[in-house]
Write a structure and sequence with these properties.
The radius of gyration is 27 Å and the shape is rod-shaped. With about 60 residues, the protein is mainly alpha-helical. The relative contact order is 0.06. It is built from one helix and no strands. Keywords: Membrane, Transmembrane, Transmembrane helix.
């Protein structure tokens, strides 16, 4: 009975380890995607600010 319980416990540990490795991998993947989106948003904001700055400069001249 003890050998069977030990094998079952080993399977649970292996499944838990695979689950944790998967969670760590997904966490890293989501973090990389978030960083990429942040850089893209900063570029878009810079373009938006530059575009509107030229519109404001033209309205001050008139």
């Amino acid at each position: 009975m003890n050998a069977v319980a030990g094998i079952g416990f080993s399977i649970v540990i292996i499944i838990y380890a695979l689950f944790m490795i998967t969670l760590v991998g997904l966490s890293i993947f989501i973090m990389v995607l978030g960083i990429k989106i942040a850089f893209r948003a900063i570029k878009a904001l810079d373009i938006y600010i530059e575009k509107n700055k030229t519109v404001e400069d033209q309205s001050e001249v008139i």
